[in-house]
Write a structure and sequence with these properties.
Elements (H helix, E strand, L loop, with lengths): L8 H39 L1 H12 L12 E2 L5 E3 L5 E5 L10 H11 L3 H10 L4 E6 L2 E6 L18 H22 L11 H13 L10 H8 L5 E4 L6 H9 L3 E5 L3 H16 L7 E4 L3 H11 L6 H12 L5 E4 L2 H4 L8 H8 L2 E6 L6 H17 L2 E6 L4 H9 L5 E2 L10 E6 L5 H7 L4 E5 L3 H10 L7 E3 L6 H14 L7 H9 L6 E5 L13 E5 L3 H8 L15 E4 L15 H11 L4 E3 L1 H12 L1 H4 L3 H15 L8 H9 L3 E6 H6 L1 H12 L7 H19 L3 E4 H9 L5 E5 L5 E5 L2 E3 L3 E3 L11
Parallel strand pairs: 6-11, 6-12, 7-9, 7-10, 8-9, 10-11, 13-18, 14-16, 14-17, 15-16, 17-18, 20-23
Antiparallel strand pairs: 1-2, 3-4, 4-5, 13-19, 20-21, 22-23, 24-25
Length: 763
C-alpha cells in the first residue's frame, strides 16, 4: 500500500483522476450490457413471442401417430378372433400444487376430451395427487389414483399406510413380472399339476403293494393327506417315508420340496422322477440349486440325450421361472425374498398359491433358521402353505412360529417300537486305537466334526488301506461324487435282501471296512453301517448321525453299536468354531444319563430338553435367531439391497472354488478344451446354433466344475499371502475366471495345505 502523505501534490491529483476514470468506464460498460439485454428480451418476448411460445409448447406436447402393436388374427373361416385398438391416457401430473388449473385450460381440455369442464374440475378437487383420463372407443373414463401411488417408476413400501394396498401391489407386480419373463423366454407361465395324486396312487399299487396287496400308506402319510389344506409340523424318525408324505400333502397343487444339501436334493429328484412322476418329467418336476443346469445336461447325456437341445433349454427355462408343478430345491432359491431385493415380488406372488415342504430343518444355522421362520410367516400372510417334516425338531421352531402368529397343526411324533441303537458315552477324545479295537469283519462309520480331525484319524488308523476310506467336503466334485457312490454301495440298506446279497457275493463285493467322514454324511445319503463312532457335535447332529447306523434294522444282540466321544471335540472352540458351545454342553449333560438301548421316543424327549424355549432362551444361539428375525421385520427396507448382496448374505458365502495345481496339470487338455467352448461368441449365429452353443456352454461349465474343490475364505486368504502357495487366475471370459492353486491333493485325502502351512477347521 502506497502512503499518501509521502506523495507530492500533483502526483496525488493524477492518481485520483485515474481512479475516477476507471470507475466511470466500468459504469458505462454495465449500462451498455443492460441495454443490450433489454433489447434481446424485447425481441424474444414481444417481437417473436408467439414463435417461441409454440416452440415451448412443442417441447411438452406433440402429436405422434402410433400404429397398433399387433395385427388382426382370423380363424379359418375369416372370423376375427383377436384384434387391436388404441387407448390413450392424459395425466395431469401437477394438479397437486396449490394453484387451481385456469378456467381457460379446463375448457380446452374439456373440448379435447368431449366432456364438461365441471366434471374434470370435480374429479381433480377430490384427489389432488394424480388424475388419469382413459379414452377408449370414443368414451372417457376418469380414474383417481390412490395417494399411495406416486410418480411413474416409484415403488410402494411395506410401511405404507394401507397394508392391503402393499399386498395387492406385491401380487400384481410379481405376477406381471412372471408373465413378462415367461413371454420373453417363450415359457409357459404355469404347467398344470393334474398328475401327482394319480401317480401317488399308482406308486402305492405298483411299488408298495407289489409284494403285499394289504400294504397301505403309513400313519404319517395318512396324516399328511388328511391335513393337506393346513400348515403342518410333524416329527418322524428316519426311514418313515417323509418324502412320500410330503408329496401326498402337496397333492395336485403347485409345490416346492426343500432340503439343505444338494446331494440329497439330487437323490430325491432322481427317485421321484423315476418312481413316481415317470412320464413327461421335463414338464412336471424340476431340480433347482446353483448347479442344476449342469446336472440336467449331464443326466440328459447319460440318458442318451432323451431331450433335444431345444427341449433341454425349455426345461431349464421352466425350472428357472418356477413354471413347473413340483420343484425340489435348496431354501436359498426361495427364501432369499425375505431381504426384499428388487424382483422379490415374483417369488412371493408364486409362493402365495404354492405349498412348501421344509425337510431336515434342524440342519440350518441360527441365521438361516431366522430367515425360514420369517419367510414362512410371510408366505402364509399371502396365502401360501407349508409343512415342516424332520426326524429331530428343535423346540424353538414351534415357539417362534407361534410367537409370529403362524397357525399350524401338529401331532405326536411318528415312531415305531424298533430298538435300533445302543449308545455308549465315552468321556474321552476320539482316537484311532479305539476304532481299530472295534473293527472285526464289520462296517464302521466314523464321523468327526472337522476335516482336520477326520484326516488325523485316517492317518493314525492302522488297518489295510484298501479297507479304509475318507470322505469330506474338500474333494474335487468328481472325486466326491465317486466317493458318495462308493459309500452308498458299501453301506446299502438293501444289502440284506436275499437277491441283493447273492448278487454282491457273486461280484466279490467287499463287505468290511471303515469309512471316516464329517457332517456331510448327517442327512445326505441312505446308509446302514454296523457301528457308529463319532465326536459329539450337538444332539440334533448326533441323532442324525445315528440314523446312518442300523437304519432299518433292529438291535437284537447285546453290546453297543453307537459310541459318542465327548472330550476335546473338534470344531467347538476358537474363532472358527462351527458348533455352538452352549448347545454342545447342554447336549453333553443330557447324554451322560444314557447308557444302552435308546428308543426313538427317548431321543425326541432328549431333543426337547435341549432345544426347548426354556432351555435356550438365554443362549447366544437363541438371541442370534431372534435378532435376525427382528432385523428382517424392522430394519430391512424394500429394494435397499441388490440381488447379489442378498445372495451373499443369505448363503453366507465365505468360500472359494479352486482347482488344485496337480489336477489342472493332469487334466490340462480337457480343461482348456472346455475353456475354449466358454469363450465362443454368440454373435452372428442363427437361433438354432445359439441354442446348441448355449447347451454346449452349460456342459462345458459342468465339466470344469468337476475339477473344482471348495475351500473356506480364510484358507484362500492364507494361500494368497503365502510365499509357498502361489495362485494363478486364468481368464475364461469377461465374467468368469478359473483359480488354480498350488496345494496338496490326492483321491485318498483330498485338499491339503503344503508342508509348513496350518490347516483350519472345516467340514
Amino acid at each position: 500500500m502506497v502512503k499518501r502523505n509521502k506523495i507530492p501534490g500533483f502526483l496525488s491529483n493524477l492518481i485520483k483522476k485515474e481512479e475516477e476514470s476507471r470507475y466511470a468506464n466500468m459504469l458505462y460498460i454495465a449500462v451498455i450490457f443492460l441495454c443490450l439485454l433489454s433489447l434481446r428480451i424485447f425481441y424474444m418476448q414481444i417481437l417473436k413471442g408467439s414463435y417461441y411460445k409454440s416452440e415451448s409448447d412443442g417441447n411438452r406436447m406433440r402429436q405422434i401417430p402410433v400404429q397398433a402393436a399387433r395385427g388382426v388374427m382370423y380363424d379359418r373361416n375369416g372370423k376375427i378372433m383377436a384384434g387391436s385398438r388404441s387407448a390413450y391416457s392424459i395425466i395431469l401430473s401437477d394438479v397437486n400444487k396449490d394453484k387451481d388449473i385456469p378456467e381457460i385450460e379446463l375448457n380446452r381440455l374439456a373440448s379435447l376430451l368431449n366432456i364438461s369442464a365441471s366434471e374434470i374440475k370435480e374429479k381433480i378437487s377430490k384427489n389432488k395427487k394424480n388424475v388419469i383420463f382413459n379414452w377408449k372407443d370414443g368414451k372417457v373414463k376418469l380414474e383417481e389414483l390412490s395417494s399411495l401411488f406416486y410418480e411413474i417408476g416409484s415403488q410402494i413400501y411395506s410401511d405404507s399406510e394401507n397394508q392391503k394396498i402393499f399386498k395387492k401391489y406385491v401380487m400384481l407386480k410379481g405376477l406381471l413380472n412372471k408373465i413378462d419373463y415367461a413371454a420373453s423366454s417363450y415359457t409357459t407361465i404355469e404347467e398344470k399339476n393334474d398328475f401327482l395324486e394319480i401317480e401317488m396312487e399308482k406308486f402305492l399299487e405298483d411299488v408298495l403293494r407289489k409284494d403285499n396287496p394289504k400294504n397301505d400308506w403309513n400313519a404319517l402319510q395318512k396324516f399328511m393327506k388328511q391335513h393337506k389344506d393346513e400348515n403342518v409340523v410333524v416329527v418322524a424318525q428316519t426311514g418313515y417315508g417323509k418324502t412320500e408324505a410330503g408329496l401326498l400333502w402337496i397333492g395336485n397343487n403347485k409345490g416346492f420340496f426343500t432340503l439343505p444339501l444338494r446331494v440329497a436334493i439330487n437323490a430325491i429328484y432322481d427317485r421321484v422322477a423315476k418312481n413316481i412322476v415317470r412320464e413327461n418329467v421335463e414338464k412336471r418336476i424340476g431340480l433347482l440349486h446353483s448347479d442344476f443346469r449342469e446336472y440336467y445336461t449331464e443326466k440328459n447325456s447319460k440318458e442318451n440325450k432323451l431331450l433335444k437341445n431345444e427341449e433341454l433349454s425349455e426345461y431349464i427355462n421352466r425350472t428357472k421361472q418356477f413354471s413347473l408343478p413340483l420343484t425340489i430345491c435348496t431354501i436359498d432359491q426361495l427364501f432369499d425374498f425375505v431381504f426384499r431385493a428388487p424382483g422379490f415380488e415374483l417369488k412371493v406372488a408364486t409362493l402365495s398359491y404354492s405349498k412348501v415342504v421344509i425337510d431336515e430343518i434342524q440342519m440350518y444355522s441360527a441365521d438361516l433358521l431366522a430367515y425360514l421362520i420369517y419367510g414362512l410367516k410371510y408366505i402364509t400372510d399371502f396365502g401360501g402353505k407349508f409343512a415342516i417334516m424332520t426326524a429331530t425338531l428343535p423346540g424353538i421352531v414351534t415357539y417362534l412360529l407361534e410367537k409370529e402368529g403362524v397357525k399350524f397343526v401338529t401331532t405326536e411324533p411318528f415312531t415305531n417300537d424298533k430298538k435300533r441303537h445302543s449308545l455308549k458315552v465315552m468321556e474321552e477324545s476320539i482316537n484311532a486305537e479305539f476304532i481299530k479295537g472295534k473293527y472285526r469283519n464289520n462296517k464302521i462309520l466314523v464321523i468327526c466334526n472337522t476335516v482336520k480331525k477326520a484326516k488325523e484319524i485316517y492317518e493314525n488308523l492302522n488297518i489295510p488301506k484298501e479297507e479304509l476310506n475318507l470322505i469330506h467336503s474338500r474333494f474335487i466334485k468328481r472325486d466326491r461324487t465317486n466317493k458318495e457312490k462308493e459309500i452308498t454301495e458299501f453301506a446299502n440298506p438293501k444289502r440284506f435282501r436275499e437277491d441283493v446279497k447273492n448278487k454282491r457275493e457273486k461280484e466279490g463285493f467287499q463287505e468290511n471296512g471303515v469309512w471316516i467322514g464329517t457332517q456331510v454324511l448327517e442327512a445326505s445319503l441312505d446308509l446302514d453301517f454296523d457301528i457308529l463312532i463319532t465326536e459329539l457335535s450337538d444332539l440334533n447332529g448326533l441323532f442324525q448321525r445315528m440314523g446312518r447306523c442300523f437304519r432299518n434294522r433292529e438291535k437284537v444282540d447285546e453290546g453297543y453299536n453307537c459310541f459318542v466321544f465327548t472330550k476335546e471335540c473338534s470344531g467347538i472352540k476358537g474363532a472358527k468354531a462351527i458348533i455352538d458351545k452352549e448347545i454342545h454342553e447342554k447336549s453333553k449333560s443330557v447324554l451322560l444319563k444314557v447308557d444302552g438301548i435308546i428308543s426313538e421316543v427317548q431321543k425326541l424327549d432328549l431333543i426337547n430338553s435341549v432345544y426347548s424355549y426354556e432351555s435356550l432362551k438365554d443362549t447366544k444361539y437363541f438371541n442370534k435367531v431372534t435378532d435376525n428375525i427382528k432385523y428382517l421385520k424392522e430394519y430391512v427396507v424394500e429394494y435397499e439391497k441388490t440381488k447379489t448382496e442378498v445372495q451373499r448374505i443369505f448363503r453366507n458365502i465365505a468360500s472359494y472354488d479352486v482347482i488344485p495345481r496337480i489336477i489342472y496339470e493332469e487334466n490340462f487338455e480337457e480343461i482348456n478344451r472346455n475353456i475354449e467352448i466358454l469363450r465362443e461368441k454368440m454373435k452372428g449365429l442363427s437361433e438354432d446354433d445359439r441354442k446348441k452353443l448355449r447347451i454346449r456352454k452349460i456342459e462345458a461349465r459342468g465339466e470344469l466344475n468337476k475339477f473344482k474343490v471348495t475351500i473356506p475364505d480364510f484358507e484362500y486368504r492364507k494361500l494368497e499371502k503365502s510365499k509357498k502357495n502361489e495362485i494363478e487366475k486364468i481368464k475364461v471370459n469377461d465374467y468368469e475366471e478359473l483359480v488354480v492353486v498350488n496345494c496338496g491333493y490326492s483321491y485318498e485325502k483330498g485338499f491339503e495345505v503344503l508342508q509348513g502351512e496350518e490347516e483350519d477347521n472345516f467340514f
